[in-house]
Amino acid sequence: MSTPTPTDGGSAVPDTSDESDTLPPRQVDHDRARRAVRELLLAIGEDPDREGLRDTPDRVARAATQLYAGLSQDPADVLSARFSIDHEELIIVRDIEIYSTCEHHLLPFHGVAHVGYIPAPDGTVTGLSKLARLVDVFARRPQVQERITTQVADALVEHLGVQGVIVVIEAEHLCMSMRGVHKPGSRTITSAVRGQLRDPATRSEAMSLLLGGKR
Ligand SMILES: Nc1nc2c(ncn2[C@@H]2O[C@H](COP(=O)(O)OP(=O)(O)OP(=O)(O)O)[C@@H](O)[C@H]2O)c(=O)[nH]1
Ligand SMILES: [Zn+2]
């Protein structure tokens, strides 16, 4: 599913294998990331060669391969795990923990995602874990919360042919907590609704299940 990422800290070699036909090579360029982190440390007046910081550029570069792994992952691959169970009613996975990185400040935002959908008319569903994996594919990129929300909803329509989908994400943005406006604890809630779940009655049933026991 995912494109392999270098683990030895060496510079990423552009992917010229067959996989590059489907996705552009987006692995983290370790050398470049290391140089950038060293520059940032110099820019803030730190000594990147002092003991505690000596390995930091390399650590940050390696962390980036995890934090931005979604850039080289294809939602179609995640949703290729599908099977027919002849179920045409609402399916919800809620409280999916989500960690992402705000594209404005490169600081984390984290919270929960709730995903519900009404399967295609032939009853085809995907595995429950795939909904959480789908969230991660879009969260592990430089992002804004609204975009993750719509991308998850649109991917389920496009790749699974669902009749309706609702996605709600609640998250705290550290760029609002530890800097800037300094409002720790504020939560941002975004939603995206498609197809049959736009119908007010169905949508209200889905919302009460999505948020059930939490309000
Ligand atoms: N809509 C949206 N805004 C976001 C998200 N993450 C961060 N932001 C906002 O992006 C905005 C960037 O505003 P700017 O004025 O360009 O940057 P800034 O001077 O650092 O803003 P402050 O955070 O207010 O200090 C801020 O208001 C952030 O709260 C997100 O996921 N969605
Ligand atoms: Zn931010």
Summarize the topology.
Blueprint: H1 30-43, H2 56-67, H3 75-78, E1 82-84, E2 91-102, E3 108-118, E4 124-126, H4 128-139, E5 142-143, H5 145-160, E6 164-173, H6 174-177, E7 188-195, H7 200-210
Parallel strand pairs: 2-5
Antiparallel strand pairs: 1-4, 2-3, 3-6, 6-7
Strand share of the residues?
15-25%
CATH homolog superfamily of the largest domain: GTP cyclohydrolase I, C-terminal domain/NADPH-dependent 7-cyano-7-deazaguanine reductase, N-terminal domain
Subunit organisation of the chains: single chain
Number of domains: 2
Number of helices: 7
Sequence of strands across the biggest β-sheet: 5-2-3-6-7
The average pLDDT score comes to: 89
Report the CATH architecture of the largest domain: 2-Layer Sandwich
Record field, number of beta strands? 7
Global structural class: alpha+beta
Task: Please state the CA-atom Rg, rounded to the nearest Å.
Answer: 20 Å
CATH fold description of the largest domain = GTP Cyclohydrolase I, domain 2
Name of the CATH class of the largest domain: Alpha Beta
Overall morphology: elongated
Order of helices and strands: HHHEEEEHEHEHEH
Task: Give the biggest sheet.
Answer: 5 strands, mixed
Low-confidence stretches: 1-23
Q: Give a list of the ligands.
A: guanosine-5'-triphosphate, zinc ion
N-to-C CA distance: 37 Å
Helix amount: 25-40%
Subunit structure: Homopolymer.
EC number: 3.5.4.16
Catalytic activity: GTP + H2O = 7,8-dihydroneopterin 3'-triphosphate + formate + H(+)
Organism: Knoellia flava TL1
